[in-house]
Design brief:
Layout: H1 2-21, H2 25-32, H3 37-49, E1 54-58, H4 65-70, E2 74-79
Parallel strand pairs: 1-2
Helix pairs in contact: 1-2
């Protein structure tokens, strides 16, 4: 449920940017990150099921903070690869 609420918040922020700045949908969602939570949600659920709460992340592109917070996870360090 919490992930769906975050997705709705991102969607509303996207529409607000479109309205206030005359942006098209693609440009606005690139700014707000709308739609990206689904890319990370399954992995975050797996980490949570495994009992992990704190971890080092090896990534070029760390996930949005909202995804990590939604699953009660903590990235203690991000190592760029």
């Amino acid at each position: 449920q919490r992930e769906n609420n975050l997705d709705l918040v991102d969607q509303l922020k996207t529409y607000k940017l479109m309205y206030e700045n005359g942006l098209d949908f693609s440009a606005a969602k690139a700014i707000t990150g709308y739609g990206k939570t689904h890319d990370y949600g399954v992995g975050a659920q797996i980490l949570k099921e495994l009992g992990l709460k704190r971890f080092r992340l090896l990534s070029k592109n760390p996930p949005p903070r909202s995804v990590v917070d939604a699953f009660d996870l903590e990235i203690v360090e991000t190592v760029k690869v």
